[in-house]
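BUG: 3D viewer hangs when loading the predicted structure for this chain

Environment: internal workstation, default settings.
Expected: structure renders.
Actual: progress bar stalls at 90%.

Input used:
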Amino acid sequence: MKVKDAMHKGVDWVSPDTPITEIAKLMRAHDIGCIPIGEDDQLVGMVTDRDIVCKGLAQNGFDASRAMARDVSCVLGAAVVPRAQIADPDALAIRVFVDGSLAQSSNTSEHVRTAARLIADVSDFMTLMPGDVLLTGSAPDGPRARAGSRIAIEIDGVGRLETRVVAGAARLRA
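Structure tokens produced before the viewer hung:
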């Protein structure tokens, strides 16, 4: 299944260079909590209202009038793997590579909650819809990377996501 098949129809995309203030206005106008970020006709991430608050407004020196979507968005993969293709979501090996070298190895069995427990807990206070994404966090003591580093994350049965770390924090300062 592709992301486009799971997403709500009629959702607008914005580019990674869209100002955060414009994204916040779109969220308010459409009463939604996230906006897909697209580039070259591909989904490259999501900006949620939580991203704007936690990664933006709660950060010292954050200037929302100068911030862009790429400053707070979460990178997502290009495809959704159907549940039927995952034997056990609570037993998936996860590997993180920094510049081609294995930097961390963990397993979903190490998560605080099982996938079913996470879905049940979240469903207690909100309605989940097809296309919703729940992020499970990361293993403790995650690897460090710097601007220019290439990061790859592999999850058995799910795939590989690669991205490059870019400098940009200075743009967030007043």
